[in-house]
Protein backbone atom coordinates (compact mmCIF):
# COMPACT_ATOMS: atom_id res chain seq x y z
CA UNK A 1 0.00 0.00 0.00
CA UNK A 2 1.47 3.38 -0.89
CA UNK A 3 2.01 5.73 2.04
CA UNK A 4 -0.88 8.03 2.66
CA UNK A 5 -0.02 11.69 2.44
CA UNK A 6 -1.79 13.86 4.97
CA UNK A 7 -1.68 17.59 4.44
CA UNK A 8 -1.05 19.19 7.83
CA UNK A 9 -2.55 22.40 9.12
CA UNK A 10 -0.51 25.37 7.97
CA UNK A 11 0.30 28.54 9.87
CA UNK A 12 1.67 30.91 7.25
CA UNK A 13 2.85 33.39 9.89
CA UNK A 14 5.71 31.03 10.74
CA UNK A 15 7.26 31.34 7.30
CA UNK A 16 6.06 34.88 6.53
CA UNK A 17 9.57 36.48 6.61
CA UNK A 18 10.99 33.83 4.24
CA UNK A 19 7.93 33.97 2.02
CA UNK A 20 8.26 37.75 1.69
CA UNK A 21 11.94 37.75 0.85
CA UNK A 22 11.74 34.86 -1.63
CA UNK A 23 8.67 36.33 -3.37
CA UNK A 24 10.36 39.72 -3.54
CA UNK A 25 13.54 38.21 -4.97
CA UNK A 26 11.65 36.23 -7.62
CA UNK A 27 9.63 39.26 -8.70
CA UNK A 28 12.76 41.43 -8.66
CA UNK A 29 14.48 38.97 -10.99
CA UNK A 30 11.59 39.41 -13.44
CA UNK A 31 11.38 43.19 -13.02
CA UNK A 32 15.10 43.46 -13.66
CA UNK A 33 14.70 41.65 -16.99
CA UNK A 34 12.37 44.31 -18.32
CA UNK A 35 14.27 47.27 -16.94
CA UNK A 36 15.60 49.44 -19.78
CA UNK A 37 19.19 50.65 -20.04
CA UNK A 38 22.35 49.33 -18.45
CA UNK A 39 21.99 51.11 -15.14
CA UNK A 40 21.05 48.61 -12.45
CA UNK A 41 21.01 50.89 -9.40
CA UNK A 42 17.21 50.85 -9.30
CA UNK A 43 17.29 47.05 -8.82
CA UNK A 44 19.55 47.61 -5.84
CA UNK A 45 17.19 50.16 -4.30
CA UNK A 46 14.24 47.82 -4.88
CA UNK A 47 16.16 45.02 -3.14
CA UNK A 48 16.75 47.35 -0.18
CA UNK A 49 13.02 48.08 -0.12
CA UNK A 50 12.39 44.32 -0.10
CA UNK A 51 14.63 43.91 2.95
CA UNK A 52 12.76 46.72 4.71
CA UNK A 53 9.40 45.09 3.92
CA UNK A 54 10.71 41.74 5.18
CA UNK A 55 11.86 43.39 8.41
CA UNK A 56 8.38 44.90 8.90
CA UNK A 57 6.76 41.51 8.25
CA UNK A 58 9.16 39.87 10.71
CA UNK A 59 8.22 42.40 13.37
CA UNK A 60 4.52 41.98 12.61
CA UNK A 61 4.51 38.19 13.04
CA UNK A 62 6.96 37.95 15.92
CA UNK A 63 5.68 35.72 18.72
CA UNK A 64 5.17 36.99 22.25
CA UNK A 65 8.36 36.74 24.36
CA UNK A 66 8.96 33.24 25.63
CA UNK A 67 6.53 31.59 23.23
CA UNK A 68 7.03 29.99 19.85
CA UNK A 69 4.98 28.89 16.87
CA UNK A 70 5.58 25.75 14.88
CA UNK A 71 3.95 24.69 11.67
CA UNK A 72 4.36 22.45 8.62
CA UNK A 73 4.50 19.28 10.79
CA UNK A 74 6.95 21.01 13.16
CA UNK A 75 9.45 21.55 10.36
CA UNK A 76 9.72 25.29 10.93
CA UNK A 77 9.64 27.18 14.20
CA UNK A 78 9.25 30.88 14.80
CA UNK A 79 10.64 31.79 18.20
CA UNK A 80 12.10 35.02 19.49
CA UNK A 81 15.61 33.68 18.81
CA UNK A 82 14.69 33.23 15.16
CA UNK A 83 13.11 36.71 15.00
CA UNK A 84 16.17 38.46 16.44
CA UNK A 85 18.48 36.48 14.18
CA UNK A 86 16.33 37.33 11.13
CA UNK A 87 16.52 41.04 11.93
CA UNK A 88 20.32 40.87 12.32
CA UNK A 89 20.61 38.99 9.00
CA UNK A 90 18.40 41.55 7.23
CA UNK A 91 20.62 44.35 8.56
CA UNK A 92 23.70 42.53 7.25
CA UNK A 93 22.07 42.06 3.84
CA UNK A 94 21.04 45.73 3.74
CA UNK A 95 24.62 46.81 4.48
CA UNK A 96 25.92 44.49 1.77
CA UNK A 97 23.55 45.88 -0.84
CA UNK A 98 24.20 49.49 0.21
CA UNK A 99 27.96 49.07 -0.27
CA UNK A 100 27.45 47.19 -3.56
CA UNK A 101 25.31 49.66 -5.49
CA UNK A 102 28.15 51.88 -6.69
CA UNK A 103 30.85 49.22 -6.37
CA UNK A 104 29.37 47.13 -9.17
CA UNK A 105 29.16 49.95 -11.71
CA UNK A 106 32.59 51.26 -10.73
CA UNK A 107 34.16 47.88 -11.44
CA UNK A 108 32.10 47.21 -14.60
CA UNK A 109 30.38 44.13 -13.23
CA UNK A 110 26.94 45.66 -12.93
CA UNK A 111 24.36 42.93 -13.55
CA UNK A 112 20.86 42.90 -12.16
CA UNK A 113 21.04 39.29 -10.93
CA UNK A 114 23.37 40.33 -8.14
CA UNK A 115 20.67 41.79 -5.88
CA UNK A 116 18.11 38.96 -6.14
CA UNK A 117 20.97 36.52 -5.43
CA UNK A 118 21.77 38.38 -2.20
CA UNK A 119 18.07 38.24 -1.29
CA UNK A 120 17.92 34.49 -1.99
CA UNK A 121 21.02 33.89 0.12
CA UNK A 122 19.49 35.94 2.94
CA UNK A 123 16.30 33.89 2.64
CA UNK A 124 18.37 30.72 2.94
CA UNK A 125 20.02 32.12 6.07
CA UNK A 126 16.63 32.94 7.62
CA UNK A 127 15.48 29.41 6.78
CA UNK A 128 18.56 27.98 8.53
CA UNK A 129 17.79 29.99 11.64
CA UNK A 130 14.20 28.75 11.80
CA UNK A 131 14.33 25.13 10.68
CA UNK A 132 13.78 22.31 13.13
CA UNK A 133 13.99 19.55 10.57
CA UNK A 134 17.16 18.22 9.02
CA UNK A 135 15.69 18.39 5.49
CA UNK A 136 15.25 22.12 5.88
CA UNK A 137 18.67 22.53 7.47
CA UNK A 138 20.16 20.89 4.39
CA UNK A 139 18.04 23.02 2.05
CA UNK A 140 19.00 26.21 3.88
CA UNK A 141 22.71 25.38 3.76
CA UNK A 142 22.56 24.60 0.06
CA UNK A 143 20.41 27.60 -0.80
CA UNK A 144 22.86 30.03 0.74
CA UNK A 145 25.92 28.11 -0.48
CA UNK A 146 24.89 27.80 -4.13
CA UNK A 147 23.97 31.49 -4.37
CA UNK A 148 27.26 32.41 -2.71
CA UNK A 149 29.26 30.27 -5.16
CA UNK A 150 27.77 32.38 -7.94
CA UNK A 151 28.32 35.65 -6.07
CA UNK A 152 31.94 34.74 -5.31
CA UNK A 153 32.66 34.23 -9.00
CA UNK A 154 30.69 37.35 -9.94
CA UNK A 155 33.79 39.39 -10.79
CA UNK A 156 33.98 37.82 -14.26
CA UNK A 157 36.45 37.95 -16.01
CA UNK A 158 38.82 38.74 -13.14
CA UNK A 159 40.66 35.47 -12.81
CA UNK A 160 41.12 35.49 -9.02
CA UNK A 161 37.36 35.73 -8.61
CA UNK A 162 36.75 32.71 -10.83
CA UNK A 163 39.42 30.79 -8.94
CA UNK A 164 37.86 31.70 -5.59
CA UNK A 165 34.46 30.61 -6.87
CA UNK A 166 35.76 27.23 -8.02
CA UNK A 167 37.63 26.60 -4.77
CA UNK A 168 34.59 27.57 -2.73
CA UNK A 169 32.29 25.40 -4.85
CA UNK A 170 34.46 22.29 -4.74
CA UNK A 171 35.11 22.49 -1.00
CA UNK A 172 31.54 23.53 -0.24
CA UNK A 173 30.03 20.67 -2.24
CA UNK A 174 32.53 18.30 -0.61
CA UNK A 175 31.43 19.51 2.83
CA UNK A 176 27.79 19.17 1.80
CA UNK A 177 28.51 15.51 1.02
CA UNK A 178 29.64 14.97 4.62
CA UNK A 179 26.75 16.97 6.02
CA UNK A 180 24.12 14.99 4.19
CA UNK A 181 25.75 11.60 4.77
CA UNK A 182 25.62 12.46 8.46
CA UNK A 183 21.97 13.47 8.18
CA UNK A 184 21.19 10.15 6.46
CA UNK A 185 22.86 8.22 9.30
CA UNK A 186 20.95 10.23 11.92
CA UNK A 187 17.75 9.44 10.02
CA UNK A 188 18.63 5.75 9.98
CA UNK A 189 19.50 5.69 13.67
CA UNK A 190 16.66 7.76 15.07
CA UNK A 191 14.06 7.03 12.40
CA UNK A 192 13.12 10.67 12.12
CA UNK A 193 14.44 13.94 10.74
CA UNK A 194 12.71 16.14 13.29
CA UNK A 195 15.12 17.73 15.77
CA UNK A 196 12.71 17.49 18.73
CA UNK A 197 11.99 13.83 18.00
CA UNK A 198 15.69 13.01 17.63
CA UNK A 199 16.27 14.56 21.06
CA UNK A 200 13.40 12.54 22.53
CA UNK A 201 14.66 9.36 20.86
CA UNK A 202 18.14 9.81 22.32
CA UNK A 203 16.75 10.50 25.77
CA UNK A 204 14.69 7.32 25.82
CA UNK A 205 17.22 5.03 24.15
CA UNK A 206 20.12 6.16 26.33
CA UNK A 207 18.05 5.90 29.49
CA UNK A 208 17.25 2.21 28.99
CA UNK A 209 20.45 0.67 30.25
CA UNK A 210 24.20 0.91 30.38
CA UNK A 211 24.66 -0.57 26.88
CA UNK A 212 25.01 1.83 23.97
CA UNK A 213 22.12 1.03 21.59
CA UNK A 214 23.05 0.75 17.88
CA UNK A 215 20.50 3.42 16.89
CA UNK A 216 22.13 5.97 19.19
CA UNK A 217 25.55 4.96 17.87
CA UNK A 218 24.41 5.71 14.31
CA UNK A 219 23.14 9.10 15.47
CA UNK A 220 26.49 9.77 17.15
CA UNK A 221 28.46 8.98 13.97
CA UNK A 222 25.98 10.98 11.90
CA UNK A 223 26.23 13.89 14.31
CA UNK A 224 30.02 13.89 13.94
CA UNK A 225 29.72 14.02 10.13
CA UNK A 226 27.16 16.85 10.36
CA UNK A 227 29.58 18.73 12.60
CA UNK A 228 32.34 18.34 9.99
CA UNK A 229 30.01 19.69 7.32
CA UNK A 230 29.18 22.73 9.45
CA UNK A 231 32.83 23.29 10.39
CA UNK A 232 33.54 23.91 6.70
CA UNK A 233 30.73 26.46 6.48
CA UNK A 234 31.75 28.37 9.59
CA UNK A 235 35.48 27.87 8.83
CA UNK A 236 36.72 26.35 12.04
CA UNK A 237 40.37 25.24 12.01
CA UNK A 238 41.29 22.73 10.48
CA UNK A 239 38.46 23.19 7.96
CA UNK A 240 39.20 26.85 7.25
CA UNK A 241 41.72 26.63 4.37
CA UNK A 242 39.29 28.00 1.77
CA UNK A 243 38.44 31.15 3.74
CA UNK A 244 41.33 33.53 2.94
CA UNK A 245 41.42 32.57 -0.74
CA UNK A 246 37.68 32.97 -1.18
CA UNK A 247 37.52 36.30 0.66
CA UNK A 248 40.44 37.69 -1.30
CA UNK A 249 39.12 36.61 -4.69
CA UNK A 250 35.46 37.49 -4.32
CA UNK A 251 34.02 41.00 -4.81
CA UNK A 252 34.57 42.89 -1.54
CA UNK A 253 30.85 43.40 -0.67
CA UNK A 254 30.30 39.66 -1.15
CA UNK A 255 33.22 38.88 1.16
CA UNK A 256 31.69 41.21 3.75
CA UNK A 257 28.30 39.53 3.37
CA UNK A 258 29.81 36.05 3.64
CA UNK A 259 32.02 36.80 6.59
CA UNK A 260 29.09 37.63 8.86
CA UNK A 261 25.89 36.33 7.25
CA UNK A 262 26.93 32.76 6.47
CA UNK A 263 28.63 32.39 9.82
CA UNK A 264 25.67 33.73 11.78
CA UNK A 265 23.12 31.52 10.04
CA UNK A 266 25.23 28.35 10.09
CA UNK A 267 26.03 28.87 13.77
CA UNK A 268 22.34 29.35 14.53
CA UNK A 269 21.45 26.07 12.79
CA UNK A 270 24.30 24.27 14.55
CA UNK A 271 23.10 25.71 17.87
CA UNK A 272 19.62 24.32 17.29
CA UNK A 273 20.94 20.90 16.25
CA UNK A 274 23.28 20.68 19.23
CA UNK A 275 20.93 21.79 21.98
CA UNK A 276 17.61 20.53 20.64
CA UNK A 277 18.57 17.20 19.06
CA UNK A 278 22.00 16.21 20.33
CA UNK A 279 21.86 17.52 23.90
CA UNK A 280 22.13 13.96 25.36
CA UNK A 281 25.49 13.71 23.57
CA UNK A 282 26.83 16.86 25.21
CA UNK A 283 29.61 14.87 26.87
CA UNK A 284 30.90 14.03 23.38
CA UNK A 285 30.50 17.27 21.46
CA UNK A 286 31.55 19.64 24.23
CA UNK A 287 35.26 18.60 24.32
CA UNK A 288 35.42 18.34 20.51
CA UNK A 289 34.06 21.86 20.07
CA UNK A 290 36.35 23.08 22.85
CA UNK A 291 39.42 21.82 21.00
CA UNK A 292 38.17 23.22 17.68
CA UNK A 293 37.42 26.62 19.25
CA UNK A 294 40.86 26.81 20.87
CA UNK A 295 42.65 25.86 17.66
CA UNK A 296 40.52 28.29 15.67
CA UNK A 297 41.11 31.26 17.97
CA UNK A 298 44.84 30.69 18.17
CA UNK A 299 45.47 29.79 14.56
CA UNK A 300 43.17 32.44 13.06
CA UNK A 301 44.73 35.25 15.05
CA UNK A 302 48.33 34.10 14.63
CA UNK A 303 47.88 33.73 10.86
CA UNK A 304 46.33 37.21 10.71
CA UNK A 305 49.47 38.59 12.38
CA UNK A 306 51.60 37.78 9.34
CA UNK A 307 49.25 39.16 6.70
CA UNK A 308 50.28 42.30 4.82
CA UNK A 309 47.10 42.03 2.69
CA UNK A 310 44.12 43.65 4.41
CA UNK A 311 41.49 41.41 2.85
CA UNK A 312 43.32 38.25 3.90
CA UNK A 313 43.93 39.73 7.33
CA UNK A 314 40.19 40.29 7.76
CA UNK A 315 39.60 36.74 6.50
CA UNK A 316 41.89 35.24 9.13
CA UNK A 317 40.40 37.56 11.73
CA UNK A 318 36.96 36.21 10.78
CA UNK A 319 38.33 32.70 11.34
CA UNK A 320 39.44 33.82 14.79
CA UNK A 321 36.03 35.31 15.54
CA UNK A 322 34.39 32.02 14.55
CA UNK A 323 36.31 30.52 17.47
CA UNK A 324 34.83 33.03 19.93
CA UNK A 325 31.32 32.43 18.57
CA UNK A 326 31.88 28.68 19.04
CA UNK A 327 32.40 29.30 22.74
CA UNK A 328 29.00 31.01 22.80
CA UNK A 329 27.45 27.99 21.08
CA UNK A 330 29.04 25.56 23.52
CA UNK A 331 27.52 27.29 26.52
CA UNK A 332 24.12 27.58 24.83
CA UNK A 333 22.33 25.94 27.75
CA UNK A 334 22.96 28.89 30.05
CA UNK A 335 23.70 32.35 28.66
CA UNK A 336 25.41 31.20 25.48
CA UNK A 337 22.46 31.95 23.18
CA UNK A 338 22.31 35.57 24.27
CA UNK A 339 26.04 36.05 24.09
CA UNK A 340 26.00 34.50 20.61
CA UNK A 341 23.41 37.00 19.33
CA UNK A 342 25.14 39.97 20.96
CA UNK A 343 28.52 38.90 19.61
CA UNK A 344 27.07 38.37 16.14
CA UNK A 345 25.60 41.88 16.01
CA UNK A 346 28.74 43.54 17.37
CA UNK A 347 30.91 41.57 14.95
CA UNK A 348 28.55 42.31 12.03
CA UNK A 349 28.69 46.08 12.64
CA UNK A 350 32.48 46.21 12.98
CA UNK A 351 33.24 43.81 10.15
CA UNK A 352 30.80 45.30 7.63
CA UNK A 353 32.21 48.71 8.51
CA UNK A 354 35.81 47.57 8.03
CA UNK A 355 34.98 46.06 4.64
CA UNK A 356 33.16 49.28 3.67
CA UNK A 357 36.30 51.29 4.47
CA UNK A 358 38.26 48.79 2.37
CA UNK A 359 35.89 49.45 -0.54
CA UNK A 360 36.46 53.21 -0.35
CA UNK A 361 40.16 52.55 -0.87
CA UNK A 362 39.74 49.92 -3.58
CA UNK A 363 40.79 51.03 -7.03
CA UNK A 364 39.65 49.82 -10.41
CA UNK A 365 41.53 46.77 -11.68
CA UNK A 366 43.58 46.36 -8.54
CA UNK A 367 43.81 43.13 -6.62
CA UNK A 368 46.00 43.87 -3.63
CA UNK A 369 44.87 45.76 -0.58
CA UNK A 370 48.00 46.35 1.39
CA UNK A 371 48.13 47.62 4.94
CA UNK A 372 50.40 50.28 3.43
CA UNK A 373 47.39 51.92 1.83
CA UNK A 374 46.21 52.84 5.30
CA UNK A 375 49.46 54.55 6.24
CA UNK A 376 48.95 58.20 7.01
CA UNK A 377 45.20 58.05 6.43
CA UNK A 378 44.69 60.24 9.50
CA UNK A 379 46.43 63.19 7.89
CA UNK A 380 44.44 63.03 4.69
CA UNK A 381 41.02 61.73 5.70
CA UNK A 382 40.68 62.00 9.48
CA UNK A 383 37.05 60.91 9.63
CA UNK A 384 37.73 57.74 7.62
CA UNK A 385 40.71 56.97 9.86
CA UNK A 386 38.60 57.42 12.99
CA UNK A 387 35.91 55.12 11.57
CA UNK A 388 38.44 52.43 10.71
CA UNK A 389 40.05 52.78 14.15
CA UNK A 390 36.64 52.27 15.78
CA UNK A 391 36.06 49.06 13.82
CA UNK A 392 39.54 47.75 14.58
CA UNK A 393 39.10 48.47 18.30
CA UNK A 394 35.71 46.77 18.28
CA UNK A 395 37.10 43.71 16.50
CA UNK A 396 39.96 43.61 18.99
CA UNK A 397 37.47 43.88 21.85
CA UNK A 398 38.67 47.13 23.40
CA UNK A 399 36.17 49.16 25.47
CA UNK A 400 34.08 51.29 24.92
CA UNK A 401 33.00 49.43 21.80
CA UNK A 402 30.33 46.82 21.15
CA UNK A 403 33.04 44.24 20.45
CA UNK A 404 34.24 44.50 24.05
CA UNK A 405 30.83 43.58 25.43
CA UNK A 406 30.46 40.81 22.85
CA UNK A 407 33.68 39.17 24.04
CA UNK A 408 32.83 39.93 27.67
CA UNK A 409 29.44 38.19 27.46
CA UNK A 410 30.87 35.17 25.65
CA UNK A 411 33.63 34.76 28.23
CA UNK A 412 31.21 35.38 31.11
CA UNK A 413 28.88 32.68 29.80
CA UNK A 414 31.80 30.26 29.45
CA UNK A 415 33.06 31.12 32.95
CA UNK A 416 29.62 30.49 34.41
CA UNK A 417 29.56 27.17 32.61
CA UNK A 418 32.89 26.17 34.14
CA UNK A 419 34.93 26.38 30.93
CA UNK A 420 37.84 28.13 32.62
CA UNK A 421 40.44 26.85 30.15
CA UNK A 422 38.47 28.20 27.19
CA UNK A 423 38.15 31.62 28.82
CA UNK A 424 41.90 31.62 29.36
CA UNK A 425 42.63 30.68 25.74
CA UNK A 426 40.10 33.24 24.54
CA UNK A 427 41.72 36.06 26.48
CA UNK A 428 45.17 34.95 25.35
CA UNK A 429 44.20 34.89 21.68
CA UNK A 430 42.46 38.27 22.06
CA UNK A 431 45.78 39.68 23.22
CA UNK A 432 47.43 38.29 20.07
CA UNK A 433 44.59 39.68 17.97
CA UNK A 434 44.89 43.14 19.53
CA UNK A 435 48.42 43.31 18.16
CA UNK A 436 47.48 43.20 14.48
CA UNK A 437 44.36 45.32 14.85
CA UNK A 438 46.40 47.98 16.63
CA UNK A 439 49.07 47.74 13.94
CA UNK A 440 46.54 49.05 11.41
CA UNK A 441 45.68 51.93 13.74
CA UNK A 442 49.35 52.72 14.26
CA UNK A 443 49.94 52.83 10.52
CA UNK A 444 46.99 55.16 10.04
CA UNK A 445 47.88 57.62 12.80
CA UNK A 446 51.66 57.52 13.11
CA UNK A 447 53.10 56.85 9.66
CA UNK A 448 53.58 59.00 6.60
CA UNK A 449 51.56 58.08 3.50
CA UNK A 450 53.34 55.43 1.40
CA UNK A 451 51.39 56.02 -1.77
CA UNK A 452 48.57 58.27 -2.72
CA UNK A 453 45.25 56.45 -2.47
CA UNK A 454 42.20 58.58 -3.05
CA UNK A 455 39.12 57.16 -1.37
CA UNK A 456 35.86 57.09 -3.28
CA UNK A 457 32.78 57.97 -1.32
CA UNK A 458 29.15 57.53 -2.19
CA UNK A 459 25.90 57.59 -0.30
CA UNK A 460 25.68 53.85 0.36
CA UNK A 461 29.22 53.62 1.72
CA UNK A 462 28.92 56.76 3.84
CA UNK A 463 25.63 55.65 5.38
CA UNK A 464 26.94 52.14 6.07
CA UNK A 465 30.13 53.39 7.68
CA UNK A 466 28.14 55.97 9.66
CA UNK A 467 25.60 53.48 11.00
CA UNK A 468 28.34 50.98 11.80
CA UNK A 469 30.41 53.53 13.73
CA UNK A 470 27.42 54.88 15.65
CA UNK A 471 26.15 51.38 16.39
CA UNK A 472 29.54 50.13 17.54
CA UNK A 473 30.03 53.06 19.93
CA UNK A 474 26.42 53.30 21.17
CA UNK A 475 26.20 49.58 21.95
CA UNK A 476 29.62 49.86 23.56
CA UNK A 477 28.52 52.68 25.86
CA UNK A 478 24.92 51.62 26.42
CA UNK A 479 24.64 47.88 25.91
CA UNK A 480 21.52 47.58 28.12
CA UNK A 481 18.79 47.86 25.42
CA UNK A 482 20.54 45.32 23.23
CA UNK A 483 21.11 43.02 26.20
CA UNK A 484 17.42 43.05 27.07
CA UNK A 485 16.61 42.37 23.41
CA UNK A 486 18.85 39.31 23.24
CA UNK A 487 17.82 38.13 26.70
CA UNK A 488 14.27 37.80 25.42
CA UNK A 489 15.49 35.81 22.43
CA UNK A 490 14.90 32.39 23.89
CA UNK A 491 15.35 29.38 21.67
CA UNK A 492 12.35 27.04 21.43
CA UNK A 493 13.25 23.75 23.08
CA UNK A 494 9.96 22.01 22.52
CA UNK A 495 6.98 22.02 20.20
CA UNK A 496 4.59 24.90 20.84
CA UNK A 497 4.66 26.35 24.33
CA UNK B 1 12.04 -9.89 -1.16
CA UNK B 2 13.27 -7.45 1.45
CA UNK B 3 14.43 -10.30 3.64
CA UNK B 4 16.63 -11.58 0.80
CA UNK B 5 18.93 -8.53 1.05
CA UNK B 6 19.73 -7.44 4.61
CA UNK B 7 19.88 -3.72 5.37
CA UNK B 8 23.57 -4.00 6.29
CA UNK B 9 24.51 -4.99 2.76
CA UNK B 10 22.81 -1.95 1.29
CA UNK B 11 24.52 0.28 3.84
CA UNK B 12 27.90 -1.27 3.02
CA UNK B 13 27.26 -0.66 -0.67
CA UNK B 14 26.39 2.97 0.09
CA UNK B 15 29.45 3.56 2.27
CA UNK B 16 31.63 1.92 -0.41
CA UNK B 17 30.18 4.22 -3.04
CA UNK B 18 30.71 7.20 -0.71
CA UNK B 19 34.38 6.25 -0.29
CA UNK B 20 34.82 5.85 -4.07
CA UNK B 21 33.37 9.33 -4.53
CA UNK B 22 35.53 10.71 -1.71
CA UNK B 23 38.64 9.21 -3.27
CA UNK B 24 37.68 10.61 -6.66
CA UNK B 25 37.06 14.09 -5.27
CA UNK B 26 40.38 14.07 -3.40
CA UNK B 27 42.67 12.43 -5.95
CA UNK B 28 41.51 13.95 -9.26
CA UNK B 29 42.92 17.32 -10.30
CA UNK B 30 40.42 18.02 -13.03
CA UNK B 31 37.55 20.19 -11.81
CA UNK B 32 34.89 18.22 -13.68
CA UNK B 33 36.20 14.89 -12.35
CA UNK B 34 36.12 16.30 -8.83
CA UNK B 35 32.48 17.30 -9.36
CA UNK B 36 31.78 13.75 -10.54
CA UNK B 37 33.30 12.39 -7.33
CA UNK B 38 31.10 14.71 -5.29
CA UNK B 39 28.03 13.54 -7.24
CA UNK B 40 28.92 9.95 -6.33
CA UNK B 41 29.07 10.94 -2.66
CA UNK B 42 25.61 12.48 -2.87
CA UNK B 43 24.21 9.43 -4.65
CA UNK B 44 25.61 7.16 -1.93
CA UNK B 45 23.60 9.27 0.50
CA UNK B 46 20.50 8.72 -1.63
CA UNK B 47 20.95 4.93 -1.42
CA UNK B 48 21.29 5.28 2.35
CA UNK B 49 18.17 7.41 2.68
CA UNK B 50 16.01 5.20 0.50
CA UNK B 51 17.27 2.02 2.21
CA UNK B 52 16.62 3.39 5.69
CA UNK B 53 13.18 4.51 4.60
CA UNK B 54 12.24 1.16 3.02
CA UNK B 55 13.61 -1.04 5.80
CA UNK B 56 12.81 0.87 8.94
CA UNK B 57 9.70 2.92 8.28
CA UNK B 58 7.99 2.32 4.94
CA UNK B 59 4.80 3.96 6.20
CA UNK B 60 6.34 7.40 6.48
CA UNK B 61 7.59 9.50 3.58
CA UNK B 62 10.46 11.45 5.16
CA UNK B 63 13.44 9.51 3.77
CA UNK B 64 12.02 9.12 0.29
CA UNK B 65 11.15 12.81 0.00
CA UNK B 66 14.60 13.74 1.31
CA UNK B 67 16.20 11.67 -1.47
CA UNK B 68 14.22 13.74 -4.00
CA UNK B 69 15.46 16.95 -2.38
CA UNK B 70 19.04 15.70 -2.55
CA UNK B 71 18.65 14.91 -6.26
CA UNK B 72 17.35 18.42 -6.96
CA UNK B 73 20.09 20.10 -4.93
CA UNK B 74 22.77 17.95 -6.57
CA UNK B 75 21.47 18.97 -9.98
CA UNK B 76 21.57 22.66 -9.03
CA UNK B 77 25.09 22.29 -7.65
CA UNK B 78 26.24 20.48 -10.80
CA UNK B 79 24.73 23.20 -12.98
CA UNK B 80 26.56 25.96 -11.11
CA UNK B 81 29.72 23.87 -10.97
CA UNK B 82 29.81 23.19 -14.70
CA UNK B 83 29.00 26.82 -15.51
CA UNK B 84 31.91 27.81 -13.32
CA UNK B 85 34.18 25.27 -15.01
CA UNK B 86 33.36 26.90 -18.35
CA UNK B 87 34.03 30.38 -16.94
CA UNK B 88 37.33 29.14 -15.50
CA UNK B 89 38.30 27.62 -18.82
CA UNK B 90 37.64 30.92 -20.61
CA UNK B 91 39.84 32.96 -18.26
CA UNK B 92 42.53 30.39 -17.43
CA UNK B 93 42.54 28.10 -20.50
CA UNK B 94 42.58 25.11 -18.13
CA UNK B 95 40.37 23.51 -15.50
CA UNK B 96 43.16 21.70 -13.67
CA UNK B 97 42.86 22.81 -10.06
CA UNK B 98 46.62 22.68 -9.49
CA UNK B 99 47.19 25.24 -12.24
CA UNK B 100 44.30 27.45 -11.10
CA UNK B 101 46.14 28.65 -8.03
CA UNK B 102 47.07 32.32 -7.80
CA UNK B 103 45.65 33.12 -4.35
CA UNK B 104 48.22 32.32 -1.71
CA UNK B 105 49.72 33.64 1.46
What does this structure look like?
The complex is a heterodimer of chains A (497) and B (105). Chain A is mainly alpha-helical and 497 residues long. Chain A has one domain (13-489). Chain A has helices spanning 16-33, 41-61, 80-106, 114-130, 134-152, 159-190, 195-207, 214-233, 242-249, 252-277, 282-305, 310-330, 332-360, 377-380, 382-396, 402-416, 420-446, 459-477, 480-487, and strands at 68-71, 76-79. In chain A, strand 1 (68-71) and strand 2 form a beta hairpin. The longest helix of chain A has 32 residues, at 159-190. The two termini of chain A are 36 Å apart. With 105 residues, chain B is mainly alpha-helical. Helix content of chain B is 74%, strand content 0%. Chain B contains 3 helices and no strands. Chain B has helices spanning 7-27, 31-56, 62-92. At the A-B interface, helix 5, helix 6 and helix 9 of A face helix 1, helix 2 and helix 3 of B.
Average predicted local confidence, pLDDT of chain A: 89
Main beta sheet of chain B: strand number and arrangement? none
Element-by-element helix/strand order of chain A: HHEEHHHHHHHHHHHHHHHHH
Number of helices of chain A: 19
Class by helix and strand content of chain B?
mainly alpha
Percent of residues in β-strands of chain A:
under 5%
Give the neighbour order of strands across the main sheet of chain A. 1-2
Rg of chain B, please?
18 Å
Total beta-strand segments of chain A:
2
The poorly predicted ranges of chain A are: none
Helix content of chain A: over 70%
Total count of strands of chain B:
0
The coarse silhouette of chain B is elongated
Rg estimate of chain A, integer Å: 22 Å
How does CATH name the architecture of chain B?
Orthogonal Bundle
Largest protein interface? A-B, 45 and 48 residues
Cα end-to-end separation of chain A: 36 Å
Helical segment count of chain B: 3
Q: Which fold name fills CATH's third level, the topology of chain B?
A: Helix Hairpins
How many individual domains of chain B?
1
